[in-house]
Write a structure and sequence with these properties.
With 311 residues, this protein is mainly alpha-helical. The chain has 2 domains: 3-210, Cation efflux protein transmembrane domain (Alpha-lytic protease prodomain-like, Up-down Bundle), CATH 1.20.1510; 217-302, Alpha-Beta Plaits. It contains 8 helices and 3 strands, in the order αααααααββαβ. It has helices at 3-35, 38-64, 78-108, 118-146, 149-178, 183-210, 217-228, 263-280; strands spanning 236-245, 248-257, 284-292. α8 links the parallel β2 and β3. The longest helix is centred in the N-terminal third of the chain and has 33 residues, at 3-35.
Length: 311
């Protein structure tokens, strides 16, 4: 699939997330106010943060699709990494608000919950769980196809929403049966703890990419395997470095050639290796430094491709 098609798929998935989150945010907050349920309101806040995160994801996937330019020679992929970090910090903020409201209500008491209206809240939570499951599945599928951390972050937000909505639904059902309204605040705190766990994972991954962490061990192994396919055509290679910026990947290494190798032969080898790596790992930029044999054998005049001093 072309990069243009990838970009369009990502934007479509982000738009769907915006629409669903907008609907659920309004539904939950209105229902929470009508029933007086802090757990439903906390879910509304959670969906509100998800809505803001969806806007950020949409902006980031649009920017990351912009080709490299004079001011961003390595592309705009880090917009997605920054988006993931911002989304995680928003989740932490949402969790803090939820815990504050829930604990305050437990300590000081507050408005009574309208038990008679809780069936409305249960219906909203049920619809929320189903909608978020469907949208998160679509987001995760597109995220995997396009290697988008912004969409994957959004998908994990909504998957967490599925669990928390189901938990709130179960809590409201218990309140209906037992009339123990304090359970509402306890559920809200549990929702917040789920949210904080999600935020921690997102912060770790986003920060790793922003700090130019290496590619996965599987991708590095694939690069090394491809280089090894051509071991009879060079004397040695060293200094393999990799990093990631959103969906964009970068790799560089030094390729040592016999001193008498023609430039055209070395150039063709580099082109073949670069083409093979690009076909196996999408959106990767490869820089290969050509070095002459270091002469460690003491007989550089007879330098050959098959070198007994190969590392």
């Amino acid at each position: 699939m072309s990069e243009k098609n990838h970009a369009q798929k990502k934007k479509n998935a982000a738009r769907l997330s915006i629409c669903s989150n907008a609907f659920l945010t309004v539904s939950k907050i209105v229902t929470g106010i009508l029933t007086g349920s802090v757990s439903i309101i906390s879910e509304g806040i959670h969906s509100g943060m998800d809505l803001l995160a969806s806007f950020i994801a949409y902006f980031s996937v649009k920017k990351s699709a912009v080709p490299p330019d004079k001011d961003h020679a390595f592309g705009h992929g880090k917009y997605e990494d920054a988006s993931g970090l911002i989304e995680a910090l928003l989740i932490v903020l949402a969790a803090g608000i939820i815990i504050w409201e829930a604990v305050s209500k437990l300590i000081r008491g507050g408005e009574e919950i309208s038990v008679d209206l809780l069936y409305i809240g249960m219906a909203v939570m049920g619809v929320s769980a189903v909608m978020n499951f469907i949208v998160s599945q679509n987001l995760m599928r597109v995220a995997k196809e396009t290697d988008s951390i912004a969409l994957e972050s959004d998908a994990w937000h909504l998957r967490t929403d599925v669990l928390t909505s189901a938990g709130v639904f179960a809590g409201l059902l218990i309140i209906q049966i037992t009339n123990l309204t304090w359970i509402d605040s306890v559920i809200a705190v549990i929702v917040a703890l789920f949210i904080l766990k999600e935020a921690y994972s997102l912060i770790r991954r986003s920060f790793s990419d922003l700090m130019d962490e290496s590619l996965s061990s599987e991708e590095i192994s694939k690069i090394e395997e491809i280089i090894a396919r051509h071991e009879s055509e060079y004397t040695n290679y060293h200094g393999l470095k990799t990093r990631k910026a959103g969906p964009d990947k970068f790799a560089e290494f030094h390729l040592m050639m016999p001193r008498e190798t023609a430039f055209t032969v070395a150039h063709d080898l580099v082109a073949h290796i670069r083409e093979e790596i690009s076909s196996e790992i999408p959106r990767i930029t490869i820089l290969i430094h050509l070095d002459p044999c270091d002469g460690r054998c003491g007989n550089s005049s007879e330098c050959t491709f098959v070198c007994k001093y190969r590392d």
